[in-house]
Design a protein that fits this description.
By secondary structure, this protein is mainly beta. It contains no helices and 34 strands. The strands form 8 sheets. Strands 1-15-16-17-18-22 form a 6-stranded mixed beta sheet, with no helix packed on it. It has a 4-stranded antiparallel beta sheet with strand order 2-34-33-32, with no helix packed on it. The chain has a 4-stranded antiparallel beta sheet with strand order 3-4-5-6, with no helix packed on it.
Amino acid sequence: MKFAFLGLTLILGAGTAIANASKETPKSNNWPQFRGVQASGIAEGKELPIKWDVEKGEGVLWKTAIPGLGHCSPIVWDDKVFMTTSISGKEKAELRVGLYGDIAPVEDSTVHEFKVYCVNKNTGKILWERTALKGVPKVQRHTKSTHASPTMATDGKYVVAFFGSEGLYCYDMKGSLKWKHDFGVLDAGYYMVPSAQWGFASSPVIHNGRVIVQCDVQQKPFLASLNVATGKEIWRTPRTDVPTWGSPTVIEIAGRPQIIVNGWKHIGGYDFPTGKEIWRLTGGGDIPVPTPVYGKGLLFITNAHGSMAPIYAIKADVAGGDISLKPKETSNASIAWFTPRDGAYMQTPIVYGDYLYICRDNGVVGCYEAKTGKRLYNERLGTGRNGFTASSVAGDGKLYFTSEDGDIYVVQAGAEFKLLSVNPMDEVCMATPAISSGVLFYRTQGHLVAIGKK
């Protein structure tokens, strides 16, 4: 039996109907949420490194120790890098990586510290740290998960940190707490075995003065919108789905923003101002983790577990109502193409140039023509015995794939597979990196590391 635990998980300029949700572009130096602008995973305009050596310090601009466990990705705004962590009362908190199927949660009822860090982007110096909460976690976590898995989000004025059952916290850029919001217990775990609590991982998104959170949990799942300045709930829309770990994405269609979410019973699009459902899609893997992404005029959604591992390429500008495929269908008026078995379990896919890249949890990377779904290659990174959870990022004609063991595989973008280098980080690496000003920021098990040219 497989496991699931976190969603560690929309390229612009591909069509006039889609506008940039955060007024940033992939060329910006800011990386404001999970996978940057609209979860695209892309940052252009600067040369990015191919080869580095952490052990020798070659290509390492700085390395800052961060205590505790956290799979949240770094985010960047101007000269600040933000992240969260959870510090157990145990001297050594359990973290087990690799390909395995155990579903039992970690037994740890010690008092934890849930913390937020702000680090200088240029020097690695910790500018401020805040303890959001001290207490025993309200739910347990998977042996590969943490209590600080959701990535933070910022709009340059506010920065929000989500600790699931421990609450949503909003700070200003100097670290002053503006508000906190308690959603109660958010129990995410295997829907078939409710006692297998795996921890919460969906990351918040900030758009047009609102914070969007997707809370697909065992009891009363929902999607909610809050005022970023005050924390007041604007609307809350119930969902009918099992627990999921992917993050929502906001895109604008004909000038009107939609919130796009992954799911099993309910993949869908919601109206940003009101939370009303616009379209829905049923079917796929029953433990959804990857975040929806947009590119080449299509919205891409994938997941994998159980009987299916689909890739859906959705026409976001025409989707409305129930767009679910009928048996044996591979397309319809709202779905450009579909494949039932090539999807990813853990990693959010990436659309870079004309191509869609999907890395599975065993390190097999598939490259597809984004518009048609034609598979161009299927190549393995690593030995097939190590896991891949962190999502890929791209820029400067290169793709970066991260193994759980901390090996970074640099692949040349394009229709043919070409491995450029493999760079060990010398630590477990579960978090998706950030890119800013030509620098890669990697969150390892014990450090935040800046990789770039000195």
